């Protein structure tokens, strides 16, 4: 069977590897553009990130709904989330850089600050679809990494209310960004 624009999604769902080859041949330029734009300063992880994006497409193709979104937009959403994951991984690993195998370590704050600002901007853009109060809860829990009990104390909201708002916010993000929770 020849894979083409009309049947590649159906064939991806049937786990036909030729359909993934079709995606690579026809859409990899979009993935590479996103990865290079956002991971331009992390060239050593770009190829790995591209492979993870393709794996994400392969694993989550059943969550793609043709009636709600175009494939390339859905795929770009997966790419954007993977890029953010890679930036987070880098920030957790970074901090100090070894110079010429000497035991002298200096902080690499410039690169870290650039990545932090990019990540903050992307997160802000993504969360802009939520109501302000829900956005604040997401920031407190996921960005500031505060405990639910502390957020409850700060905001005066009951834990159940916070959990409900977070759940609704996640569903709204998933629906609008058309992603699978199994990421």
Any chance you could write out the topology, listing elements then pairs?
Elements lengths: L7 H6 L3 H22 L4 H18 L10 H23 L2 E3 L6 E3 L1 H19 L4 H12 L4 H8 L3 H19 L6
Antiparallel strand pairs: 1-2
Structure keywords:
mainly alpha, 8 helices, two-stranded antiparallel ribbon, Rna Polymerase Sigma Factor, Chain: A, 183 residues
Task: Walk me through what this model shows.
The protein has 183 residues and is mainly alpha-helical. It has two domains: 1-118, RNA polymerase sigma factor, region 2, helix turn helix motif (Rna Polymerase Sigma Factor, Chain: A, Orthogonal Bundle), CATH 1.10.1740.10; 129-183. Helices cover 69% and strands 3% of the residues. The protein contains eight helices and two strands. The chain has helices spanning 8-13, 17-38, 43-60, 71-93, 109-127, 132-143, 148-155, 159-177; strands at 96-98, 105-107. Strands 1-2 form a two-stranded antiparallel ribbon. Helix 2 (17-38) packs across helix 3 and helix 3 (43-60) crosses helix 4 (71-93). The chain is globular. The relative contact order is 0.10. The model is unreliable at 96-108 (pLDDT under 50).
Q: What letter string, H or E per element, gives the SSE order?
A: HHHHEEHHHH
Structural class: mainly alpha
Domain module tally: 2
Name the CATH architecture of the largest domain. Orthogonal Bundle
Q: How large, in whole angstroms, is the Cα Rg?
A: 19 Å
- Taken as a percent bin, the fraction of beta residues is under 5%
Low confidence ranges: 96-108
The share of residues in helices is: 55-70%
And the CATH topology of the largest domain?
A: Rna Polymerase Sigma Factor, Chain: A
